[in-house]
Amino acid sequence: MNRRVFAGLGFALLLGLPASLPASSDPVKDLVYDLEMGKKDVRINAARALGNQDDARAVPPLLEIVRNAKESKDLRREAILSLGKLEAKEAVPTFTGLAINPSENAELRIAAIEILTRMKAKGAVKEIARALENPKDKDQVRVAMTAFLSAYADRKIVPSLKLVMENEKDDWEIRVPVLDLAYRLDGKNTLKSFEAIVLNRKDDRRVRAHVLQILFKEPEKSLVPAVIDVAGDAKDRDDIRISAIDALVKSGDKRAGPPLLALADNARDEWKVRAKALQFFPVSPPKEWPPGRERILFNPKEKDSLRVVAFGVLTALQGTRLAPQAIDLLKNPKEDEEVRTAAAAFLGDCGVKEAGRPLADVLGTTPKKAYFREAIVRALGKLRYKNAREMIEYLSRRDDDVSVRKAAREVLEEM
User: Fold this and answer.
1) Which residues contact 103 (CB under 8 A, 6 or more apart)?
2) What residue spans of 221-331 are helical by DSSP H?
3) Positive or negative, the Cα torsion across 91, 94, 96, 99?
């Protein structure tokens, strides 16, 4: 150091001003000096800058910062990010230890886990899987752990995943992604856990619903009895039962037919659940509407919306055994017009020829609801009932509703 520089430094010290050495030709060395000796902001900037140097000498001092829990969170975070930029493999044990330590800052742990994910640090999988088992750990950290584990198709972690997904006291937001991962890694070995979750009425409804959603997408025959049990339990939640029925409908498993039919026929049960149960039968249809179960269709004390669904199912089955009763219902002005509309559609779609005259007679009374008139017109068209042609021609020109006029014109073209 020459006399001028030395004198300048001495003068600065006498005045109480900060002194700095002149910049060297080694930026990494300078940054390491700033990291170790500088003030707070200088150290943070140095930690950040070292990540852009692509120099292995930056790794040891950055690791020392990460390991030192007494350092500030901001400084340690910058050190973590810089080590990630440098892709320092020697940082993996330090990052792993940080990630699984519940006493460490959550933000730093998540940063470490995210970098472990980017570095494809497969060696950390076992320890992070074990750490995930801790239900007292912070949710946001465990979410990051799950994302890390999702990057590896390692079936050895499934036992840890099962401990999490089976723990009904754990947070549902953790259990749902964990059970997704477990099922993806080893579907067969998670089915017993799925069964236990679905059958546990005290478990979180969102976890149970998610399991049923998985079974809807990928039906599992071995779980059909458990799903049937849930669907038929009137004490269970309606939304869970409906999800269970959806899964059974998707599966088309014939074992579900009798219990779902009994459910649909149970007037004491919730009508929405009963209506959902009826949707199973077009998927796995019997030869005709089961004898002795006509109450759903023809009992005016039943929920009208349920009866409409039932007629839709009857139409899908294409059975005509109940056509005489459907005709009587159609002609009854005391019946709900939506139910009569469904009966008209059934008679037309199933080609019940003897329904032509009753349909025309009802149309002649000019029902108030346009949708009812339209349904009758279309049913007459499907039956090719030519005796109603004059009436249909009139409606095609003079009906108040555009949909009825359009339907009438279309029917006339088909006739």
Assistant:
1) none
2) 224-231, 238-251, 257-264, 271-278, 295-298, 304-317, 323-331
3) negative
In which region does residue 171 sit, left (phi positive, over 0), alpha (psi from -120 to 50) or beta (all else)? beta
Residue 251 near residue 221 (C-beta atoms within 8 A): yes
- Separation of first and last alpha carbons in the chain: 110
pLDDT in tens, 121-174: 999 999 999 999 999 999 999 999 999 999 988 899 999 999 999 999 999 999
CA–CA distance, 84 with 279 (Å, rounded to integer): 54
User: At residue 293, what are phi and psi to the nearest 5 degrees?
Assistant: -115, 25
The pTM of this model reads 0.78
Please check whether residue 137 is in contact with residue 103, taking contact to mean a CB–CB distance below 8 angstroms.
no
Count Cβ atoms within 10 A of the Cβ of residue 66 and give its class: 0-12 exposed, 13-18 middle, 19 or more buried. Answer: buried
Helix (H, G, I), strand (E, B) or coil at 97: helix
Buried b (16+ CB within 10 A) or exposed e, 212-221: bebbbeebbe
Of 259, 311, 254, 260, nearest to 285 (Cα)? 254
pLDDT in tens, 234-271: 999 999 999 999 999 999 999 999 999 899 999 999 99
**Six-digit token string for 334:** 């005391």
* Residue 314 CB burial class (10 angstroms; 0-12, 13-18, ≥19): buried
